């Protein structure tokens, strides 16, 4: 669950049970979150080559000029495409500032990113039987686009004890504790 506690604090409330062994709690290590606007996302409608900056998408209307976008590449990594500098609603294309680092296939996700990565630190006492602990971090001022009620796609990357876990959740922002 995502709680909107103040203008600049994000808190992921839930035990992180990565289960390298059943019921093992991992509460230390490096944890980061990336936020994406669920309502401003589309997919590629044509395969795109490395270095390409004009992308054919299924719904150009979903991506705003000036938005920061991330594109899923064919090798399953994500490419930071920079800002969208143009959008053509007639041809369903967008133009990005940073050409693709690798090829991207039809159906690859083009997601509007909200702000930079957020470093999260553990808080509370880890336990599998409580929700009074988790990870939290401070958002930068440019996360102002995160508002109560907004539907977010959140990618959480936990790297701890030699184990890396990447989770994706879709959640609405809730006001208060």
Summarize model confidence as the mean pLDDT.
Answer: 78
- Order of strands in the sheet with the most strands? 1-2-9-8-3-10-11
Structural class: mainly beta
Task: Spell out the helices and strands N to C.
Answer: EEEEEEEEEEE
DSSP strand content: over 45%
Structural shape = elongated
Cα distance spanning the termini: 10 Å
Number of beta strands: 11
Low-confidence stretches: 15-20
Radius of gyration: 18 Å
- Assembly type of the chains comes to single chain
Reported for the largest beta sheet, the result is: 7 strands, mixed, barrel
- Tally of contiguous helical segments: 0
Q: Kindly state the percentage of residues in helix.
A: under 10%
Overview of this structure, please?
The chain has 177 residues and is mostly beta strands. It has strands at residues 2-6, 9-13, 30-43, 54-56, 68-72, 78-88, 93-96, 109-123, 134-138, 151-160, 163-175. Strands 1-2-9-8-3-10-11 form a seven-stranded mixed beta barrel. The protein starts with a strand and ends with a strand. The model is unreliable at 15-20 (pLDDT under 50).
Essential attributes:
177 residues, mainly beta, seven-stranded mixed beta barrel, 0% helix
Brief description of this entry?
With 177 residues, the chain is mainly β. The protein contains no helices and eleven strands. It has a seven-stranded mixed beta barrel.
Secondary-structure map:
Blueprint: E1 2-6, E2 9-13, E3 30-43, E4 54-56, E5 68-72, E6 78-88, E7 93-96, E8 109-123, E9 134-138, E10 151-160, E11 163-175
């Amino acid at each position: 669950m995502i709680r909107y506690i103040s203008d600049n604090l994000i808190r992921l409330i839930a035990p992180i049970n990565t289960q390298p062994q059943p019921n093992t709690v991992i509460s230390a290590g490096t944890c980061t979150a990336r936020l994406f606007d669920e309502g401003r996302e589309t997919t590629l409608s044509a395969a795109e080559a490395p270095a390409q900056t004009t992308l054919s998408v299924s719904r150009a209307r979903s991506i705003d000029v000036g938005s920061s976008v991330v594109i899923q590449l064919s090798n399953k990594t994500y490419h930071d495409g920079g800002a969208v500098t143009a959008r053509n609603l007639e041809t369903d294309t967008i133009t990005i500032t940073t050409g693709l680092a690798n090829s991207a296939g039809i159906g690859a996700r083009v997601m509007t990113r909200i702000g930079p990565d957020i470093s999260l630190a553990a808080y509370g006492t880890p336990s599998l039987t409580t929700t009074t602990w988790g990870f939290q971090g401070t958002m930068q001022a440019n996360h102002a686009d995160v508002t109560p009620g907004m539907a977010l796609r959140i990618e959480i990357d936990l790297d701890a004890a030699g184990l890396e876990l990447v989770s994706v959740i879709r959640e609405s922002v809730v006001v208060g504790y």
